[in-house]
Amino acid sequence: MNKRRIMLVEDEKVVAADIQECVKGLGYEVVGAAATGTEALRLAVKTMPDLVLMDIKLKGVLDGIDVAGALYDQLKIPVVYLTAHADAEILERAKQTAPSGYVLKPFDDRTLRTAIELAFDRHRRERQLIDGGQRLAAAIGSIDEAVIVTQESGQVALMNRVAEALTGWKQEEALAKPVDEVFTILNVRTGAPQASPIGRVFREGVAIGLGDDVLLLGRHGGRQLIQGSATPVRDGEAHAVGVCLLFRAASQRAADEPWGAPDHGSANRLEILGRLTAAVAQKFTRLLEAGRGRTHAAHLANRLLEFGQRQPAPPAYLDLNELISGLDDLLQCALGDDIGLQLTLAPAAGGAKADPGPIELILMQLALSARDAAFSGQFSIETSAVSSEDTGDGYAIVTVTPPAAGRDAPPDLPALDEIARQSAGEVRLSVEDGAVKIYLPAALP
Question: Are residues 48 and 75 in contact, defined by beta-carbon separation less than 8 angstroms?
Answer without folding.
Answer: yes
